């Protein structure tokens, strides 16, 4: 009988991205853009998730362009961050920050997201919900 090494591929495959995460993710909704400086173009989109270590940006495109690892800048609201595009999924681009965000900067982004989403709700959702007028 020949002894073989156990197959470790299955064990590593079971580790989901969630179990490898270092920083907690927070949902947000901030319009912005990804700047591909090397290639000289940008893509508009929405930052829909933020953490101290990275972002997820959903481009405003019908089809996602498959991108490989490359350095990009992300501008959203009053913020501009240097990142590395690390993956492309159906949910958008996964971006890793070049330096970890301090807690106070993360809180500023989340507070801005709250005010931005409130403004979007007032501008776009409220007009779609007609109020009932008294006496009608």
Would you write up a description of this structure?
The protein has 136 residues and is an alpha+beta fold. The protein contains three helices and six strands; from the N terminus they run ααββββββα. A six-stranded antiparallel barrel has the order 1-2-3-6-5-4. It starts with 8 loop residues before the first helix and ends in an 11-residue tail after the last helix.
Report a brief summary of the structure.
This protein is α+β, with helices and mostly antiparallel strands and 136 residues long.
What are its keywords?
136 residues, globular
Task: List the topology elements.
Blueprint: H1 9-13, H2 17-20, E1 26-36, E2 41-50, E3 54-59, E4 70-76, E5 79-89, E6 92-97, H3 103-125
Antiparallel strand pairs: 1-2, 1-4, 2-3, 3-6, 4-5, 5-6
Distance between the termini: 87 Å
Oligomeric state of the chains in view: single chain
Main beta sheet strand tally, sense and closure: 6 strands, antiparallel, barrel
Q: How many distinct beta strands?
A: 6
Strand portion, in percent?
Answer: 35-45%
Radius of gyration: 20 Å
* Helical percentage: 10-25%
Mean pLDDT level: 79
Q: What would the principal axes of the Cα set say about the shape? A: globular
Label the structural class.
alpha+beta
- Which strands sit side by side, in order, in the main sheet? 1-2-3-6-5-4
């Amino acid at each position: 009988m020949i002894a073989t090494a156990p197959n470790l591929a299955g064990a590593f495959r079971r580790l989901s991205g969630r179990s490898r995460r270092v920083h907690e993710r927070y949902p947000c909704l901030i319009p912005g853009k990804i700047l591909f400086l090397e290639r000289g173009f940008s893509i508009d989109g929405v930052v829909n998730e933020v953490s101290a270590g990275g972002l997820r940006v959903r481009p405003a495109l019908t089809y996602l362009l498959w991108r490989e690892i490359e350095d990009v800048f992300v501008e959203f609201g009053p913020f501009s961050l240097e990142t590395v595009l690390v993956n492309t999924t159906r949910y958008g681009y996964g971006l890793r920050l070049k330096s970890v965000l301090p807690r106070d900067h993360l809180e500023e982004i989340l507070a801005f997201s709250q005010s931005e989403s409130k403004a979007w709700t007032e501008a776009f959702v409220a007009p779609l919900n007609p109020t009932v007028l008294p006496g009608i």
